[in-house]
Amino acid sequence: MSSNVIFFGWNRSVPGRERMSAEHFQAFGEYLEAQQRKGVIQSFEPVFLDPHGGDLNGFFLIRGESAKLDGLVGSQEWTTHTVRAMLHLDKAGTVRGAAGELIGQRMDTWIKQIPAK
Q1: Domain 5-112 classification at class level
Q2: What is the spatial distance between Cα 77 and Cα 83, in angstroms, rounded to a whole number?
């Protein structure tokens, strides 16, 4: 199944590691900017959620072609960033997904799986 987005989210900085989180946030943004310039990704957007009592408080939404995103998440650079994030972020995680033009394709697949009455 094809996906065209990566969702990298987190809850909060681990207490005492806030400075590390701020520095890594800057470095990760620079990394994604470089990937965009190289054509590996189409775009990215960091999002901070307003306080709401939940355990998702921020994320990066990264858009690109499925095969190129496969290469991105399979790279040593990506692995280094995600391992680094695990050292200073609570509940950090990566999820692949579909958006934009792939939504229709996903809905068609879903509808075909609904049992007939």
Answers
A1: alpha beta
A2: 10
